[in-house]
């Protein structure tokens, strides 16, 4: 595509541009005149469906749920790896919810009562780590 753009804008010769890019001229023309395969056409159709489903669910669906949704709603079966690859190409990622903390904040008055009536005293340690 870069060769084609430079050729259109600046008018440099195709053979010089191909030599600079390190590809043969025949490979450039083969690429230029190629027709999309059935797989590429199907992938383009899938990309549209993936983007629509992604926007419909506000980006919540990851590739696994996206695969399930597309396979249920359409008459084809698609592998999850294909959906993952296409979602990466489209730069689509699922929105992950934040983890909730699993503890309850409490004040010291609400903690446990001193049922055993234990008395706790602070102990002093000297420089060598022994009790004083």
TrEMBL record:
Signal sequence, renumbered to the chain: none
InterPro entries attached to this UniProt entry: HTH-like_dom, Transposase_IS3/IS150/IS904
Pfam entry (one): HTH_21
Protein's UniProt name: IS3 family transposase
Domain HTH-like as annotated: residue spans: 43-100
């Amino acid at each position: 595509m870069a060769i084609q753009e430079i050729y259109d804008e600046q008018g440099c010769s195709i053979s010089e541009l191909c030599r600079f890019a390190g590809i043969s001229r025949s490979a450039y023309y083969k690429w230029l005149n190629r027709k999309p395969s059935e797989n590429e056409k199907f992938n383009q159709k899938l990309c549209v469906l993936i983007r629509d489903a992604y926007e419909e669910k506000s980006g919540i669906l990851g590739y696994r749920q996206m695969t399930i949704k597309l396979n249920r709603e359409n008459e084809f079966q698609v592998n999850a790896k294909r959906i993952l690859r296409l979602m990466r190409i489209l730069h689509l990622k699922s929105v992950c919810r934040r983890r909730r903390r699993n503890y309850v904040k409490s004040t010291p008055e609400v903690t446990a009562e001193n049922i055993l009536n234990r008395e706790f005293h602070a102990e002093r340690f000297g420089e060598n780590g022994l009790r004083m």
